[in-house]
Structures are given as structure tokens and as C-alpha cells.
């Protein structure tokens, strides 16, 4: 009768331990320069990890000590948590499915088009209401200045695998025909009418291409890349939690049966 309770206690202990890498992944996500500039994207995974930790702990205590009331609360909370995780996963997959990336001949890095990303991301992150603060935050970060210490020659830079945000914000689009001086200084464009970003580029370290659509696309490219990695951890977590939840339902039913059996014996006594 107590077999499923013991299994539930063990699996919830495993889920409790799994919450640690979830929290670590959320902390890593929050520490990335792009997410530091988008506050509402920084902590959802950390909060989910903490919720998994607390709910798993409640499930462990309820199953191990056969606390029917605690198991009931645990089941409700676990169902809500699974639903929230599924919603987060579906949203993350839908909005990060388009990449907006395209390859550039002779370059180790890709470049990015804003139109290639989901409209939800564009509307919630790169809208005129939000971009001013994000742009100022990126300009204050070390995303672009550190490139000057990493690359000396043009060949080194062109062969580099830049992050999306470095490719979009720290240099002008290749189609503009700018001449490389260093990673953040480019002169003598040959095709300034190729696209609007060509005339927006500025060698001022506080300007660069932070006002470009390419920079907005690079930011979305970074977010997409990071969230796709975190999604793997979330998928594993959801699968584990669903199995734990199913076994916990058996444990709850067993706890009720045991309580009825105890009352039955007391009645005969």
C-alpha cells in the first residue's frame, strides 16, 4: 500500500535535485547582457525552478510521512505548475521558431533581419516604447567594446563567430560596403542606399548601430538562441513532473485508503 508513497517520495527528491540546474539555467539566462536590458525576461525560469523546488519538497514530505492534507495541496500546486510550464514552453517555442538569420559570403558570422522574427517578439521587445531604454542599456554594456581586445586584423574579425547581438549592434551590415578599421570603427561606405541601417551607422561608441534594425534583430537572435537552450531543460522538467504527478495521485489515493482502513480498525477495536 505504501509502495507508491515511497516511489513518490523518491521521485520528488529527484525533482527537488533537478530544480537546482533549472535555477542555475535561469540565473545564467538572467546574467546575459541582452536579458539584463529586458527586465521582464530575466527571472521567469528562476521562479519556475524555485516553484519546482518548493512543490517537490511538499510532495516528498507528504508522501514520506503519509500526510493526506499536504499531498492534496501538493497535487493542486503540481497541476498548476505543470500547466504554467507547458504554457511557457509553448510560448517559447512559438515565438523563437523563426530565426531571422542569413549567411554572408566570406564571413564566419551570420547577420539578421528584423522581419525574420516573430511579430510577438518584435512588438514586445523592439517597439519604440521599449527600445529607447534597451538601446541605452546595450550602449552601457561591454558587448561591443570587448571586441576591440579580441580581434586585431580584418581577417580575424571576418572569420569570427560573433553572437547575434555583436553582429547586429557592433558593426554595420555587410551590404553597406564599409571598410574595416577595427571591430567598432568602419569608414568609407560604398553602398549607403542599400538599406536604411547603412546611413544610421556611427563610429561613436555610444551610437554604433544601436539604432539600427539590425541591432534589434541581433538582440532577438540572442534571445532566441538562449531560450532554445533553456527549453531543453524545461522539456525534461515537464516530463519528470508529469510522471511524478501521476504516481503522486496513486500515493494520495493510497493515503486515503490507509486512513479509512485505520478508522475501520479503530471502529472494531
From TrEMBL:
It is found in: Membrane. The keyword Phosphoprotein does not apply. This is Tetraspanin-2-like. The chain crosses the membrane at residues 6-31, 43-65, 71-95, 230-248. Belongs to the tetraspanin (TM4SF) family. The keyword GTP-binding does not apply. Keywords: Membrane, Transmembrane, Transmembrane helix. One of its GO terms (biological process) is auxin-activated signaling pathway. It comes from the Eukaryota. One of its GO terms (cellular component) is plasmodesma.
Amino acid at each position: 500500500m505504501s509502495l507508491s508513497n515511497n516511489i513518490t517520495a523518491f521521485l520528488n527528491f529527484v525533482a527537488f535535485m533537478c530544480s537546482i540546474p533549472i535555477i542555475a539555467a535561469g540565473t545564467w539566462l538572467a546574467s546575459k547582457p541582452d536579458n539584463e536590458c529586458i527586465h521582464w525576461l530575466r527571472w521567469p525560469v528562476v521562479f519556475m525552478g524555485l516553484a519546482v523546488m518548493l512543490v517537490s519538497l511538499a510532495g516528498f514530505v507528504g508522501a514520506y510521512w503519509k500526510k493526506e492534507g499536504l499531498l492534496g495541496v501538493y497535487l493542486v500546486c503540481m497541476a498548476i505548475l505543470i500547466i504554467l510550464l507547458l504554457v511557457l514552453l509553448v510560448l517559447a517555442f512559438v515565438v523563437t521558431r523563426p530565426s531571422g538569420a542569413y549567411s554572408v559570403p566570406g564571413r564566419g558570422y551570420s547577420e539578421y533581419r528584423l522581419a525574420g522574427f516573430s511579430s510577438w517578439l518584435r512588438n514586445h521587445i523592439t517597439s519604440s516604447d521599449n527600445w529607447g531604454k534597451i538601446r541605452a542599456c546595450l550602449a552601457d554594456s561591454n558587448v561591443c567594446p570587448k571586441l576591440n581586445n579580441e580581434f586585431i586584423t580584418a581577417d580575424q574579425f571576418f572569420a569570427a563567430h560573433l553572437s547575434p547581438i555583436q553582429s547586429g549592434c557592433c558593426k554595420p551590415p555587410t551590404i553597406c560596403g564599409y571598410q574595416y578599421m577595427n571591430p567598432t570603427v568602419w569608414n568609407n561606405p560604398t553602398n549607403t542606399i542599400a538599406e536604411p541601417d547603412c546611413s544610421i551607422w556611427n563610429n561613436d561608441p555610444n551610437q554604433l548601430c544601436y539604432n539600427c534594425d539590425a541591432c534589434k534583430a541581433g538582440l532577438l537572435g540572442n534571445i532566441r538562441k538562449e531560450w532554445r537552450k533553456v527549453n531543453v531543460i524545461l522539456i525534461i522538467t515537464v516530463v519528470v513532473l508529469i510522471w511524478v504527478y501521476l504516481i503522486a495521485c496513486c500515493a494520495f489515493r493510497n493515503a486515503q485508503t490507509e486512513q479509512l482502513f485505520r478508522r475501520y480498525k479503530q471502529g472494531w477495536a
